[in-house]
Design goal:
Layout (H helix, E strand, L loop, with lengths): L2 H12 L9 E5 L46 E5 L2 E5 L4 E12 L2 E11 L4 E5 L1 E2 L5 E2 L3 E4 L2 E4 L2 E5 L5 E10 L2 E10 L5 E9 L8 E11 L3 E4 L2 E5 L2 E7 L2 E4 L7 E3 L2 E5 L3 E11 L5 E10 L4 E11 L3 E15 L5 E15 L5 E10 L3 H5 L3 H5 L2 E12 L3 E12 L4 E15 L18 E13 L2 H4 L6 E3 L17 H6 L2 E11 L2 E3 L2 E14 L2 E7 L4 E7 L3 E13 L2 E7 L3 E16 L10 E5 L6 E5 L14 E17 L8 E17 L10 E9 L10 E10 L1 E8 L6 E10 L9 E13 L5 H10 L3 H8 L11 E12 L7 E13 L4 E10 L4 E2 L3 E8 L2 E8 L6 E8 L8 E6 L5
Parallel strand pairs: 32-37
Antiparallel strand pairs: 1-2, 2-4, 3-4, 4-5, 5-6, 5-9, 6-11, 7-8, 9-10, 10-12, 11-12, 12-13, 13-14, 14-15, 15-16, 15-17, 16-19, 17-18, 20-22, 21-22, 22-23, 23-24, 24-25, 25-26, 26-27, 27-28, 28-29, 29-30, 30-31, 31-33, 33-35, 34-35, 35-38, 36-37, 38-40, 39-40, 40-43, 41-42, 43-44, 44-45, ...
InterPro entries: LptD (IPR050218), LptD_2 (IPR045659)
Organism: Rapidithrix thailandica
Pfam families: LptD_2
């Protein structure tokens, strides 16, 4: 009998299962004990099965688990080469891509030894023919992976000894010569290095003799020093602690320090970061200067998936500057930013975009180029709700601010809009369409207020006035909005407007006639009475603080049609011209007559000049129409596109190429006016040129517009030295009647923009869609100015604008600028960006900046240089990429902010 068969029979008699195979997977809780057939018998010794080989045999272990002991769950294990059992010593040997899984613990290695007596597992790699280690242990527990040269782990105590470990903790990597792993997953390392570089031999690291690691919590180090490319440096500390969490955690923000020429030495940007919850965070940073200035910034971001996201930032700065005479100039600045973007869901929607503060904040504190050059800022907080089939409700709080003129306007309003109602139409919209069934009406109401620090707007009567009801008599036309808020509130204008339009439409052959009637009513809290007083040499304005209403109505009819013209050319090419002429007539009575009492004839000077002034002067919605209006408006819209048949297309379809996307001409003629009945003629055009020539270029976007003044001007004044016209007067004579053409161009503007950039591949587009759920990548996409995308090899944007305007016969005022920006990746690691422009009038370069970025694997270098102008400066930073060590950097700055 063969020895192998004899061995199997002996094992079967003794109750032993023997398994050896390739690609074998076995499960067990413990090596089973050997029970004798008769309790009175003493069990005979069991032989050690150590060198048995059964090639090409697959045997599955069917052992039943023994009573529960220190091992709490099933152990799964497998090996590609062989599995050998030592039954007596209860040891198992796994060879060739061995794998053991115990609960949430997984161990992979070239060789694994399991000892059930000591409840330990030993894993190691093996050397190949060249001496290179292969199959070194990979240990995974609760999602944390450890790479090692050799390790021993105890299932019962959950402790282990690991040699040559490499593990990732948060954004960092840890390498240790020898590690003791505790049952609470903490590790004590000897001869360790902590880094954020993922190379085997990292570019830099923090070398420490002793290190304690609490996975997903923190890393604590004893005395340590920096290493650069394996070379020790003298930079170090007696101890250190580094966060190792994958989610946001609260902590300290370390400040920058330096010197400002006019503010003194400073500590800037230090503070606290609070991870308030999974949805909200808050950072609080401060700055202090030795001359007494200080600042505070609160910045919070929030996001609720599938519902809303946004951010709130508030900054306060007390700027103390030392003047040339050693005196101190003090300025208090603040700025608030808030953006809230909802995901439309249900019947209501709330959104916010707030950008406001003191007029000197950006000049004194902002390092953002757009904030520095932009004089105007706008804000809007809005809420809207759909009211079923009735209509909709909207609430808005708008704000606009000009930091140059220092004028601030805050406008709250609420509006109610009713959907259009067809009273003569059958339910469901069926039936024949005629002018009766097409008759409809609707309603819109709006209540609005306006707070402004521009008192000149309230006093703008066009003549000298004395307001007896003015409580705050400010001499300035513009006051500070917040420090004089009482005066701003006293000058608040508010009111309401109701509008009911009634309209229908009639189809006449190829024409559509649309008559309509509109009724509008105004509600105001006050009205004015005017009295000329010779002693004051001014008009006294007296307020009647009582509810006042006024109304007006008008009627109109418009006639519209659409024509097409086709121009055929040789060789599968044709042009389609679509033009839409419109003619309308409107009539509005004169609501300034004494019958309505909406206006008053007032003497405005000693010469006895009489003017008709509205009793609702300065009303937020205006006043009923002054004078009768019988106006005919006319317009013509054009579109021009080419159609080219694709020769290689078997379907012989035409491809559309836009030539002129729009060309509009507008004007009107008022029959009720006694002079200057024809209005200015406005024109505008928009098109894209050469958009389909190259795949990475969308062509030139061209916008053109202007105004023609059809009336003749006479010279009233010239400069005696230069002979230039300095004054002119408009005459009620058409230039066409005088043989001088259609009119004189009083305003014209041209804008041309283009952008060159390689097209994105399908792989890049798919990756962008995947990144939408990644918080880090989402932050990059939402804030592209903070990051450098090396995947875009190059890009170039060019914007050319020219505008010219003139008053009468005076010389035109022309502004012409060319702006360009872009970037280019010189290599996979080098990227250069630029931004500049040229002012043709000033004959000088506009704001210019140059940015250079270098990817240094685990580090990055950036250079920002503004070579000239009021913000001449440069910043050079070499910093670790990882946010966990973002304060590990070398910086050199020469900023305008500190000069």
């Amino acid at each position: 009998m063969r020895p192998a068969i004899l061995l199997l029979i002996i094992c079967w008699i003794l109750g032993i299962d023997l398994a050896y195979a390739q690609n074998t997977e076995v499960k067990f809780d413990s090596i089973p004990s050997i029970t004798p057939a008769n309790d009175s018998l003493t069990p005979s010794p069991v032989p050690v099965l150590a060198d048995t080989i059964l090639p090409d045999t697959v045997v599955t272990d069917t052992l039943q688990p023994s009573p529960k002991g220190d091992i709490e769950t099933t152990i799964d294990y497998s090996a590609e080469d062989s599995i050998i059992y030592d039954v007596v010593k209860q040891r198992t040997f796994l060879y060739g891509n061995a794998k053991v899984k115990y609960g949430d613990l997984t161990l992979e290695a070239a060789e694994i030894e399991v000892d059930m007596n000591s409840k330990t597992v030993v894993a190691r790699g093996v050397a190949d023919s060249t001496g290179t280690m292969q199959g070194e242990p990979i240990f995974t527990e609760q999602g944390v992976t450890y790479n090692a040269k050799e390790m021993t782990y105890n299932f019962a105590s959950k402790k282990g000894i690991i040699s040559g470990i490499v593990t990732e903790q948060g954004d960092g990597y840890i390498q240790g010569e020898r590690v003791k792993k505790m049952d609470n997953d903490e590790m004590f390392m000897r001869g360790a290095i902590y880094t954020t570089c993922n190379l085997v031999h990292p570019h830099f690291g923090i070398r420490s003799r002793r290190l304690k690691v609490a996975p997903d919590r923190y890393v604590i180090s004893g005395p340590f020093n920096m290493e650069l490319n394996g070379i020790p440096t003298v930079l170090g500390f007696p101890f250190g602690m580094f966060p190792a969490k994958n989610e946001r955690t609260s902590g300290l923000i370390f400040p920058d320090f330096g010197e400002s020429q006019d503010r003194g030495f400073y500590l800037r940007g230090g503070g606290l970061y609070f991870a308030l919850s999974d949805y909200v965070d808050l950072s609080m940073t401060t700055e202090f200067y030795t001359l007494g200035g200080w600042g505070l910034t609160l910045d919070s971001r929030y996001r609720k998936r599938y519902k809303y996201s946004g951010g709130l930032n508030f900054s306060y700065r007390k700027v103390v500057r030392e003047q040339d005479d050693f005196s101190k100039a003090i300025t208090n600045d603040y700025w608030i930013r808030w953006n809230h973007s909802p995901q439309t869901k249900g019947a209501s929607r709330f959104s916010a975009s707030v950008n406001a503060g003191t007029s000197t904040y950006n000049q004194n504190n902002s390092v953002n180029f757009d904030n520095y050059v932009n004089p105007a800022f706008n804000s809007n907080i809005s809420y809207s709700r759909t009211l079923g089939s009735f209509g909709s409700l909207g609430v808005n709080l708008r704000h606009n601010q000009n930091v140059r003129t220092e004028i601030v306007n805050v406008t709250p309003d609420i509006s109610l809009n009713m959907n259009r109602v067809y009273p003569f139409r059958k339910k469901g919209g069926g039936g024949k369409k005629n002018f009766i069934t097409q008759t409809s009406f609707s309603y819109s109401g709006q209540a609005k207020g306006e707070l402004t620090n521009n008192l000149a707007k309230r006093r703008s009567f066009g003549f000298e006035v004395v307001d007896l009801e003015q409580e705050n008599d400010f001499e300035e036309d513009t006051i500070d909005f917040f420090s004089n808020f009482t005066g701003v509130l006293d000058n608040m204008e508010y009111g309401a407007r109701h509008s009911i339009p009634l309209s229908t439409s009639i189809n006449i052959s190829y024409f559509t006639l649309s008559p309509s009637i509109n009724y509008t009513e105004y509600w105001y809290p006050r009205r004015y009475n005017y009295t000329w007083v010779d002693e004051l040499d001014a008009v006294v304005v007296e307020e009647e603080n009582e509810f006042s209403r006024a109304y007006e109505f008008s009627t109109s009819a418009s006639l519209q049609t659409r024509f097409y013209a086709f121009y055929e050319f040789k060789g599968d090419f044709r042009i389609r011209h679509m033009f839409t002429p419109t003619v309308s007539f409107s009539y509005r009575p004169d609501f300034s007559t004494p019958d309505f009492d909406y206006y008053q004839d007032v003497q405005v000077d000693k010469e006895g000049t009489i003017r008709r002034v509205s009793r609702f002067q300065g009303g937020i919605f205006g006043s009923p129409g002054l004078g009768e209006s019988k106006s005919m408006s006319f317009g013509l819209s054009n579109q021009l596109e080419a159609k080219v048949r694709t020769k290689n297309d078997s379907t012989q379809k035409y491809k559309k190429i836009p030539i002129l996307q729009s060309l509009n001409i507008r004007g009107s003629y008022d029959f009720a006016r006694d002079s200057f009945q024809l209005s200015n003629i406005s024109f505008s055009a928009r098109t894209t040129l050469f958009g389909d020539i190259f795949p990475n270029w969308r062509g030139f976007n061209v916008n053109f517009g202007g105004t023609l003044d059809p009336y003749v001007y006479e010279i009233t004044k010239t400069d005696p030295i230069t002979g230039k016209i300095t004054g002119s007067r408009r005459v009620d004579k058409l230039m066409w009647d005088e043989g001088q053409g259609l009119g004189r161009v009083s305003r014209v503007n041209l804008g041309v923009t283009t952008r060159f950039q390689p097209p994105k591949s399908k792989k890049q587009k798919d990756q962008e869609r995947k990144n939408e759920d990644n918080p880090v990548m989402r932050d990059i996409m939402n804030n592209p100015e903070r990051y450098v995308d090396f995947n875009i090899p190059w890009s170039l944007s060019v914007n050319y604008t020219i505008s010219s305007s003139r008053t009468g016969l005076q010389d035109p005022n022309t502004v012409q600028t060319l702006n360009f920006s872009g970037d280019i990746s010189l290599t996979e690691k080098w990227k250069v960006g630029f931004r500049s422009g040229y002012d043709f009038k000033e004959k000088d370069l506009a704001f210019t900046s140059i940015n250079i970025h270098r990817d240094l694997h685990c580090w990055q270098m950036s250079l920002n240089w503004i070579p000239f102008g009021p913000r001449t400066s440069y910043n050079i930073d070499i910093a670790v990429k990882s946010s966990i060590l973002q304060d590990l950097k070398i910086s050199k700055r020469d900023s305008w902010y500190d000069r």
